[in-house]
Structures are given as structure tokens and as C-alpha cells.
Design brief:
four-stranded mixed β-sheet; single chain
Length: 339
């Protein structure tokens, strides 16, 4: 089974060397690796060309049309068969990554495989927090045949059969973000099967500063309304905890009523009327800290103190706030309500 790897890159000199090194050290060597530079100005393209000179199966392309979708599609148009595995320039695949991907395609009905994502050597406080909160995924292997507003996939670790891409289409280049969800949702809507394989793992180099992390969350949130309009037009979805209720409606809507920032804002607003509301607010924040501590234990991240745990909870609230703000601001442009 032929396996090709596609990696888009934009001003990635800080992280790209670790990505390249990891791909060249795979126990199951890729048949080809395509790095597609998307107009870098920091020397990424020139550095990649130097590395490709020593690796005949490594190819470097330049795509002037901005966006990760356009960069990936530029490489996909060169492929005719097999499986294509996607990762990003700030990811470090584990040595068994491609071997685990190949093993996951146990049946010809499997259209795509979504792998696991964890942290890569977090150093700063923000990186340590994102190592706990970023990329929520199941711990066990799963088979996915349907999707909803909360079904997520990440091109940081996703592989697809090339013939499936030809059948369902490439990435939507008109989308600035969410093109990975759009592709996977199209595959599922068309009857394809996607397998979640956490053992096929890459490690993500998280953003080191709070401003960079929140800017990224805002960006992701701003892409949500377009996705909702494209895939759930005329459907109102309300999330309460882990439950989603959906129904036909005159307005396309996707609102999470119990996200941490909304509960916190509601209790803070209520405390203006009755100071006793500060008690459930404090209890809620304590619960949030316990949930983060539990998530840290599952991901084997050591929380150094209760103060650090409180800071992680505050950062997590800011992440949700940035994402919701992005969704709300973009909602009007797409004629939906998304938060």
C-alpha cells in the first residue's frame, strides 16, 4: 500500500526541522513526502529545498494561493493512488506513525483514519496548559459513521485514501479554517467510514504565548459559522453538557449553552443581583480546576501547584471566550447564530 505524506508550511523555520527529521525516521518509510510552502518569508522554502536534495522521495513545492487548503490540494493533484497522510509543520510524528496508519486500514471500507495528537516537549506555562486542553479526542480506537456539530477532526493527523478524495473532492479552498471538518463531514455524509486510531500519534508543538493561543482560537471560532451554514443549513443545534439537541428551524444555529465561559458569565451577572451567586461561581471554578487536573493526569502532565492549576483554568476560560467571540462576530456575515 503506497503512503504519501503532505505537509503545508508557512513561516515555519521554528518548528519545521523537527517535523522533517521525524518523517525521515519513520519505521514505515513514506513512499513520498510533499512539503508545500505557502509563501514563507523566513527562509522555510529555501531550507526545505536544501533538505530535499539529500532525500530523493522528499519533494518541495511552492503554492502562491494562500491557505492550508490550497497548499494541500497542490500536492494532492500530483497523487494517483494509495493513502495520503496529512500533518503540519509544527507537528512531530512518532516513529511508528505511518506504520500505525497502514495497520488501521484493515478493511477496504475504511475511507480515512484520524490519529492521536499530544504535546511535544512543552516549556512555557501556555504550552503546558495547551498540552492539557488542546485537541480533545477519544483515548480508544473508534469507528465513525455519522457526524454532528461537535464531531471534530484535525489535519494535524489525518489520512485519507486517494480514491476517496477523487470521489468526494479535495479541500474547499474558499475556507480559511475548518476545511478538515468539511472534508471529513462530506466523506461521512457520503457513506464513508472514518476510523479513530489514537496509536497513530503525532506530537504538536504548541504556541508559546497567550496572545498567539487566543488568536488561534478566535480564528477557529470565526470559521465555525460557515461550516454550520454549509452542513447544517436550516437546523438549530443546542449543546447542553455532552448532549446535543437538533431540530429544523428558520434560523441556522449552533450554541453551546454550558461552555465554561457562558456559565461563568451567567453566574457573575447573577451575583450583581444576589451576592450569594458568588458561592456557586466559586464551586463551578473549583470543579473546572478538578476537571483540568484530571485531564492533566490522563495526559501525564504534572501540575506543579494549585496556583498553576488556577492559571490553567483561567487560560481555558479565555480560550473558550476567544472561540465564542470569533464565532459570534462571523455569524452575521454567514446569516447564522453560532457561539
Amino acid at each position: 500500500m503506497r503512503i504519501s505524506v503532505v505537509v503545508p508550511a508557512y513561516n515555519a523555520r521554528r518548528t519545521i526541522a523537527r517535523c522533517v527529521d521525524a518523517l525521515l525516521r519513520q519505521t514505515r518509510r513514506p513512499d513520498s513526502i510533499y512539503f508545500v510552502d505557502n509563501g514563507s518569508s523566513d527562509g522555510t522554502y529555501e531550507w526545505l529545498q536544501e533538505q530535499a536534495a539529500a532525500a530523493p522521495y522528499m519533494h518541495v513545492r511552492r503554492e502562491q494561493t494562500r491557505g492550508q487548503a490550497a497548499a494541500r490540494n497542490a500536492a494532492l493533484r500530483l497523487l494517483d493512488e494509495g493513502i495520503v497522510a496529512f500533518t503540519d509543520a509544527d507537528c512531530v510524528p512518532e516513529p511508528e506513525w505511518l506504520a500505525q496508519i497502514a495497520e488501521a486500514y484493515a478493511s477496504p471500507e475504511i475511507a480515512a483514519v484520524s490519529g492521536g495528537i499530544s504535546e511535544y516537549e512543552p516549556q512555557t506555562l501556555i504550552e503546558r496548559c495547551l498540552a492539557i486542553t488542546a485537541f480533545p479526542q477519544p483515548d480508544q480506537a473508534t469507528t465513525i459513521t455519522a457526524y454532528g456539530p461537535t464531531t471534530v477532526f484535525y489535519t494535524a493527523n489525518l489520512s485519507v485514501r486517494v480514491d476517496v478524495l477523487k470521489r468526494f473532492g479535495l479541500f474547499d479552498e474558499s475556507m480559511s479554517t475548518g476545511e478538515d471538518l468539511d472534508l471529513c463531514w462530506r466523506i461521512l455524509r457520503g457513506g464513508g467510514v472514518i476510523v479513530g486510531a489514537p496509536a497513530a500519534r503525532v506530537r504538536h508543538i504548541h504556541r508559546p504565548t497567550l496572545s498567539a493561543a487566543l488568536k488561534r482560537q478566535f480564528f477557529y471560532g470565526a470559521g465555525r459559522p460557515r461550516l454550520m451554514r454549509k452542513h447544517f443549513h436550516g437546523i438549530a443545534s443546542v449543546m447542553i453538557g455532552r448532549h446535543t439537541m437538533s431540530a429544523r428551524a428558520p434560523v441556522t444555529m449552533c450554541v453551546n449553552l454550558t461552555s465554561p465561559e457562558k456559565i461563568s458569565m451567567a453566574l457573575i451577572a447573577l451575583s450583581v443581583l444576589t451576592p450569594w451567586s458568588l458561592i456557586p461561581l466559586c464551586l463551578y471554578w473549583a470543579r473546572l480546576m478538578l476537571l483540568i487536573k484530571h485531564a492533566a493526569q490522563k495526559r501525564k502532565i504534572t501540575v506543579r501547584s494549585n496556583i498553576e492549576l488556577a492559571i490553567f483554568a483561567a487560560i481555558h476560560l479565555l480560550e473558550f471566550s476567544a472561540s465564542s467571540a470569533g464565532s459570534l462576530l462571523a455569524s452575521r456575515r454567514h446569516g447564522v447564530l453560532c457561539a
